[in-house]
Amino acid sequence: MAEAIDRGAVPLHSGDLADGHFLPGQDLSAYAQPVTLLNPPSTSPLHHAEPERLPGDFPDYHLMPT
Q1: Which of 43, 34, 49 has its CA nearest to residue 8?
Q2: Are 32 and 54 in contact (CB under 8 A)?
Q3: What is the residue-level pLDDT of the chain in tens, covering all 66 positions?
Q4: Are 13 and 36 in contact (CB under 8 A)?
């Protein structure tokens, strides 16, 4: 995250695991704090981490006959 921000990404939200709903004593080592970045630079691995959603990727369920 820090690398993407250093390269120009805009942090919109940075959460804290303490705000999560976990069981007492639960191992949190597999969890990461939630972060939302706007416009990660194309040189950042985060730029390609999420699939790009294009029109037509999802069916238009509201147009399907019943």
Answers
A1: 43
A2: no
A3: 788 888 888 988 888 888 888 999 999 998 888 888 888 888 877 766 655 565 555 555 555 555
A4: yes
